[in-house]
Structure to design on (253 residues):
């Protein structure tokens, strides 16, 4: 039986839309922009499965959750590619090429493929820990995804020798030791209170601008209407000036 290790306390350490299965499983699945695939991946034996929509913070959360569980050795990228972000290609490029000195994912084609909170060391750990990246980008067939998961499980090499690595993400770290069901994001209150004053000021500005636009439209319409009326009266006056002398001349013989 493959050797297993305990993941970091409170794993998964980064919040997200994922579904969690057996933490001792060697397979993790990213379903990109698709929905309805995650539970099927868990049922097939994956440790964690969830979408990833952005090529920066989204990928950082994937890396953080994977390297904090040394049992995860395979990554399956499936589901529909996220247009514009091209998250699947960026994640695959991260695994294959790593990041540059500026934090940019080498070879990534997404809009903003930069790792701001995950440096070279965590990325290197991610590349070392994942022994195989299975490319099923744009595949939504649950049967094919299930088959890929079971194939990876059959090749389970066991947990990485190194212990779990935990990285803190801005706006995405779960606090260790908190009660289950409670989630706190560093730097952001758990209950966001609306700024009523700012909203009121914004509404007043919008109302003022809408009023100006309405006035301008009304003036333009009025000018246009008066112009048309003036032209009609002018035309009638011109006809009268020309027509009356002609008519008198015709009547007088």
């Amino acid at each position: 039986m493959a050797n297993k290790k305990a993941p970091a306390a409170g794993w998964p350490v980064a919040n997200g839309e994922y579904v969690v299965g057996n933490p001792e499983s060697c397979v993790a699945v990213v379903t990109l922009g698709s929905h309805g695939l995650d539970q099927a991946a868990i049922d097939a034996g994956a440790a964690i499965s969830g979408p990833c929509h952005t090529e920066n913070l989204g990928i950082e959360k994937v890396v953080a959750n994977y390297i904090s569980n040394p049992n995860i050795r395979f990554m399956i990228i499936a589901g529909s590619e996220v247009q514009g972000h091209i998250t699947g290609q960026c994640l695959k490029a991260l695994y294959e090429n790593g990041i540059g000195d500026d934090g940019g994912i080498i070879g990534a084609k997404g809009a903003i493929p930069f790792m701001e909170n995950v440096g070279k060391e965590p990325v290197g750990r991610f590349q070392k820990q994942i022994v195989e990246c299975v490319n099923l980008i744009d595949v939504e067939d649950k049967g094919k995804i299930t088959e890929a998961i079971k194939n990876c499980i059959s090749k389970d090499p066991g947990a990485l020798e190194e212990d779990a690595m935990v990285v803190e993400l801005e706006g995405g770290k779960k606090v260790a030791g908190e009660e289950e069901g409670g989630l706190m994001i560093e730097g952001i209150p758990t209950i966001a209170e609306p700024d009523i004053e700012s909203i009121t000021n914004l509404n007043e500005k919008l109302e003022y601008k809408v009023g100006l636009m309405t006035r301008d439209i009304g003036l333009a319409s009025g000018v246009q209407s008066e112009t048309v009326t003036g032209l009609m009266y002018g035309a009638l006056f011109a006809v009268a000036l020309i027509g009356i002398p002609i008519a008198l001349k015709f009547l007088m013989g």
In short: The CA atoms of residues 79 and 141 lie 8 Å apart. Residues 196-253 form one domain. The chain is about 40% helix and 10% strand.
